[in-house]
Design a protein that fits this description.
With 100 residues, this protein is mainly beta. It has no helices and nine strands.
Amino acid sequence: MSPAIASVHVVQQRESTTFLLRVSGVDEPVTIEVSTPAGGELALRNSPWTCTRLAPATLRCAGEDGQAMIRQSGLDGPAPIRVVITDSTGATRTQVFLLD
């Protein structure tokens, strides 16, 4: 597994929560899955990655180092975000972030 690591910075909290997801330390293209296990909906904007929506609260992206703005909505406040980074060998790194 490459030393890829994700970080999250909350940008805005109101009816929805907007956060910046940054992935760094990527040596090769990786798959980045972002989800809110509590449900709700994730909306992606300003991303260098190629992304698809697997479910309302799950996004799967492919790419290298970069960052994206993501809006979490449809919940009674901010909920934890799970980020799973998978490299080309199938090795994964999972991180959970609290949005408060």
